[in-house]
Specification:
This protein is α/β, with parallel strands linked by helices. It has 9 helices and 9 strands. About 35% of the residues lie in helices and about 20% in strands. A 4-stranded antiparallel β-sheet has the order 7-1-8-9, covered by helices on one side. The longest helix is centred in the last third of the chain and has 17 residues. The protein starts with 5 loop residues before the first helix and ends with a helix.
Length: about 240
């Protein structure tokens, strides 16, 4: 196991590892552990009581965070004709079809999110093996395969986060930058947690939210009390 540096040990000492904090207190402690040298991201990890190997327990969705993620999102749209112009007018960074498919096949990946109109998914499917493992493939379930390209682009640019449970049953997501301050971060967390709870599979039995942890990019994990989710959502939404 690698040894942590002096700064990490100092900020970790601020966290009571035996305590499960309410969200408001957890965010306060997380901000105290954030570095002053760069604007760290607040991340949330939620362990779910699901078995992702079963298709009917695969949790996947998207949420538009009220205050975004605090970073520039480069959006590539696969579209033609009127939809190409619509995407550009909405603020897409790159728009095209065969030309961008060829560039991606050649190794170009200078974008963060993709959107595609349904009629082009047959062509986009040719680069699925490149986009899929990187989480860049357009997907109907998260609203990125659509003819409403302007709406999709604006949501992605505005802080739309898509997420899915991993093989270990954990969902990871960013909740914004430390510079947002506690109030905005709590509102973003409320939107995320509300969406995640609504996505509970009907086949999931027992405890759905098994554990929740917050952490800044370079900071220690802070355990959050899952029982505080309802209070968070009620107070912030």
């Amino acid at each position: 196991m690698p040894k942590h540096g002096k700064r990490y040990r100092e900020v970790a000492a601020k966290v009571d590892r035996a305590h499960r904090y309410p969200f408001a207190e957890a965010v306060k402690v997380a901000l105290e552990t954030a570095s002053t040298k760069f604007d760290e991201t607040l991340d949330v990890a939620v362990a779910l009581g699901v078995n992702p190997r079963h298709a009917d327990q695969m949790v996947r969705g998207a949420v538009v965070l009220p205050h975004g993620l605090g970073k520039t999102v480069r959006v590539l749209v696969f579209a033609k004709g009127e939809k190409e112009k619509e995407a550009l007018d909405a603020g897409a960074d790159y728009v095209g079809a065969e030309d961008f498919i060829a560039r991606i096949q050649g190794g170009w990946l200078d974008f963060d999110k993709t959107v595609a109109t349904p009629d082009l998914m047959g062509q986009v499917g040719r680069i699925g093996k490149i986009l899929g493992p990187r989480g860049l493939m357009p997907n109907v379930k998260v609203g990125t395969v659509t003819f409403e390209v302007a709406k999709a682009v604006k949501e992605l640019k505005g802080g739309k986060v898509d997420f899915r449970v991993d093989r270990a049953g954990v969902v990871h997501a960013g909740a914004g930058k430390a510079s947002f301050g506690a109030e905005k971060l709590l509102q973003n967390l409320a939107a995320f947690m509300d969406t995640l709870v609504r996505l509970k599979p009907t086949t999931s039995k027992g405890t759905y939210l098994k554990s929740i942890h917050l952490s800044t990019t370079m900071g220690p994990g802070i355990a959050v009390d899952p029982a505080d989710v309802k209070n968070l959502v009620r107070m912030q939404l």
